[in-house]
Amino acid sequence: MTQTPVAAGRTVLVTGAGRRLGRTIALDLAAAGWQVAVHYRASEAEAQQTVADCAAAAAASGGGRHAAFACDLADEAATRALLPAVEAALGPVSAVVNNASLFEHDGAQDFGYAAMERHWRSNTGAPIVLAQVLHQRLTARGAGPRSGVVVNLLDQKLWNPNPDFLSYTLSKAALEAANTLLAQALAPLLRVVGVAPGLTLTSHLLSDEAFAAAHRLSPLGRSSTPEDVAGAVRFALENQSLTGTTLLVDGGQHLMKFERDFSMMGTPT
């Protein structure tokens, strides 16, 4: 059987792709014919495994090259150097998926500048810088309209707010606003789209039973799976009419009122 080679310009940087949701997104895109740059901060072994698994997933679509790239997204200079490093290894990049995210607990009672700055740098500043650099590089190579796209991972809690994880929530609210501003400022070369999952993966803060119960709390009877989110990301990357908007992929959880973050349910206020 003749294999179709990876199309020119189908190279995507996925941040935080060594583990969890980012890994699922990377594998889904590799299977769909994208060359994937797997970003990681500290999880090198997991990132290299994702690269190997992307190569296996891409075999049916013609293969392509995939590679891992280390970067601390809280470091502006390192973040600005990330896309040039990816392009030196894999060729021109046309898409960035900003999945990596800092998620540390604070609230109104213990909020401080340091926590806000940590979340702002990783969750808001880095995605904006990567969009800026991608636009600059598209411009430099004379790309045409809609040649690039940035997908920002958000959170259903922006449409269903609760006061837990205050700095995290503020950083994601700023990123959601940046979707609109960047879509305006960087058009027509670049599209900017948000994808907002509901409760998708468990964490050390939830038992298996608590996660399963919280996952069922939606009008559709379940929230998002990693595969649901990855499919929405791929749709956002490939649908040329989407920009300046957000796809909520949460089983309708944003339609329900939750007094606490999912990870804090059952914890005294």
From TrEMBL:
Tell me if Oxidoreductase is a UniProt keyword of this record. yes
Q: Which domain of life is it from?
A: Bacteria
Q: Does the keyword Oxidoreductase apply?
A: yes
The entry sums up its family as follows:
Belongs to the short-chain dehydrogenases/reductases (SDR) family.
Q: Which InterPro entries match?
A: NAD(P)-bd_dom_sf, SDR_fam
Full protein name? Short chain dehydrogenase
Which keywords, in A-to-Z order, does the entry hold?
Oxidoreductase
**From what organism does this protein derive?**
Pseudorhodoferax aquiterrae
